[in-house]
Amino acid sequence: MDKIIPSNSIPNKSEYWDLITSTLSSYEVKEISDDGKITRRVVNDDYFLVNDVWNISDIAKIPNFKDANTKRMAHNLYFECESPTVNMELKFVFFSQLFSDRWAFRSIFKGLNQSVKLLAEYLKEKHPNLTSLLDLDIEKEEKLWIFWLNSKGIKTSYTTTIRGEEINAKTLPAKSIRMIYNPLLRLTDTRNEWDKDRWDIRELNKKYDFGFNVSSTSYYIDFSEIENNNFRKALKEYIKGRLISGKNFVWGTATYYGLYIGTFLNSISKQNPKWNDLKKLERKHIEKYLEELNEHSKKNVNPKGYVNHILKVIRSFIKDIQTFEKFKDFAPEKVVYRLIYFEDLPTVPKKSEDDISYIPDYVLEQLFDNLNDLHPDVQPIVWISFKTGLRISDTLGLKQDSLGRINGKPNLTTDIEKTYVIGHKIPIDDHLADIIAVLIDRSKQYSNDDNNPERYLFVRYRGSRKGRPLSSNFCRAELNHLARKVNITDEAGNLFKFNNHMFRHTYGIKLLNGGADILTVQELLAHASPEMTMRYARLLEDTKRKEFEKVVKQGVFAFDVNGEIHQVSEKEDIPKDILDILWRDEKLNAFDNPYGTCRARVNGNCPLAAEPPCLTANDGKPCFDLAIGMTSFDVKKYELLIETTTMWIEASKEYGRDDMVEANERNLERYQNIYETIKTGNVIFGRFDRMKRKLEQAKKIGVAHE
């Protein structure tokens, strides 16, 4: 490239400046072949080091940016700070973000170019002698920067609507100082990741392969807010040890341990500013912390659960450091149970095992009716999650080799991160297989070793998440945006709120509802134990019970002593004991037959069950154990009985069989009376008063509900 002029001599060398100058003295060219393979080569060219004006036409010639559209962009990028060292830092940040694809070509030349000019003017006015941006107190400086921008008449905030929600946001100039400062701090901190005060799981994973949820945006644990250096060091050593041991301690657990314990340590440090360890920790210090914690918990939607969870983390931390030899000079001398009492943990109301967040059919119908209005990237994710029961995070982790066949039937193969199941196979239908095949084809078409080295199906091809899947937060946000947009509500008319795990629970419940056994459902969902699967079964049982009670309470009829139908109740409360007996007998003993549901197995099998004359078995009257209308199939049965009996009557008349006509007309009248009663959802029981007498007898001998 052509060089303009070196504006200033290179500053005195140090490790810090060596890193910056050596980085700017060359750049890496990436060339991608047609088969997606990437070739890298280093070009020794100090264009970015010596030039304080970067020309867009020059940079666009580099193969990395050959597809960049340079129309309507600034022609040059100017670095005009008075301080040559600050200029060097700015160029280092812009260079690194550009060549790593963290900042888009367009963002730099049609946005940040103006911000870097303003920053040069600001630093000249406010910090004329500044030699490094890292000397600034960024928290304080950001506020002064925004105040200065406002004084220049430059807009620093605006209101926008994202996914239907109105939010206040900073303008690009307002947030640019932080955008430059943070990567400079990160890029020039060459220490081992464990030594830093902000750990990045992406860096740790390169060496330790801890594994983390690739669809999550939680990359960091930040220890910098812990004021006491010794406390900070101890917590870092503790969490490092737990992560490396790998025993029931993953990155997600480490993130909230770091947050909760860090806040606790700051509270103790505030109470005892001269402490460098916790050896003298007393109950009084814990009580002071509890006051702060309980006050803070008021902001939480579940204060008791919040406090309970945090105290368990703190208790675990103290117990561990009292056990581990390396913390013997740091850990409290008093045992943990003399510091945090069992009574300190609030009693949290136990969540019902039946309280499972799933998507009712009423909501599913609305969702799929409006699926075309959902973000196109999220539509196939919904289909896959709904039809396979995969967690959204596992769905987002699907790769190009996920689709397979066994015995000619399609299946989906993936790893289940949460339960450590490798190569989990799920049978799928042809419709879903076709969707996934299209996704695989698209991924292969647009992927290469640079933008999608892991060959994910749902991937970001550029930006800060380049090469990683879409985030699960994005999927949830888009689903709830759709709910607001088209007004997806529950049956009570309330706006429905989606969470990503609902599709998995819905899949499990529908499998059981369709007749799958518990072990099959457990295997398909890759549950570590049957416990969660059993919760689905209990929920299904509860759902059936509620539907049963709804049907019974709608209207109960009975055959009287003459075999005629009369109403027992009309939308009135039926005794709970009666409902219990009805439900138990119907669930355990009912036997379907052409006339309804036979309940005779309560006391033994009906001898006429093979060919049940149930409507005339009781001296010409209906059987006491007959129930009609318990299922929608009974309505169809009587529609068919009426149709076939009518045909028999017509045939009998044609052949002059008056006796057969008379017999069938009696049956037809009986069928029609029953049909008119049950077609609106009512139920007819053989002898309802008999059931009441049985209940009273059972109560007298103390065996009710056995």
* Quaternary structure of the protein: single chain
Q: Low-confidence spans: pLDDT under 50, at least 5 residues?
A: 1-12, 586-592, 608-612
Strands, count: 17
- Find the structural class using helix and strand composition: alpha+beta
What is the CA-based Rg, rounded?
Answer: 36 Å
Q: What is the arithmetic mean of pLDDT?
A: 81
Q: Termini, distance in Å? A: 90 Å
Adjacency order of strands in the biggest sheet: 13-12-17-16-15-14
Strand content: 5-15%
User: What is the tally of helical segments?
Assistant: 24
Helix content: 40-55%
Shape: elongated
Task: Describe the sheet with the most strands.
Answer: 6 strands, mixed
Write the layout of secondary structure elements.
Elements (H helix, E strand, L loop, with lengths): L14 H10 L2 E6 L5 E6 L3 H4 L2 E3 H5 L15 E3 L5 H16 L5 H22 L11 H14 L5 E6 L2 E6 L1 H17 L9 E3 H8 L11 E3 L6 H17 L5 H21 L11 H15 L5 H21 L37 H9 L9 H10 L3 H5 L6 E4 L2 E8 L4 E7 L2 H17 L25 H15 L15 H12 L4 H8 L4 H25 L1 E4 L5 E5 L6 H14 L1 E3 L2 E3 L27 E3 L3 H23 L3 H21 L4 E3 L2 H13 L6
Parallel strand pairs: 12-17
Antiparallel strand pairs: 1-2, 3-4, 5-6, 7-8, 9-10, 10-11, 12-13, 14-15, 15-16, 16-17
Helix pairs in contact: 1-4, 4-7, 5-7, 6-7, 9-10, 10-11, 10-12, 14-16, 14-18, 18-20, 19-20, 22-23
Could you name the key traits of this structure?
alpha+beta; disordered N terminus; 17 strands; six-stranded mixed beta sheet; three-stranded antiparallel beta sheet
Quick structural gist:
By secondary structure, the protein is of the alpha+beta class. The chain is 48% helix and 11% strand.
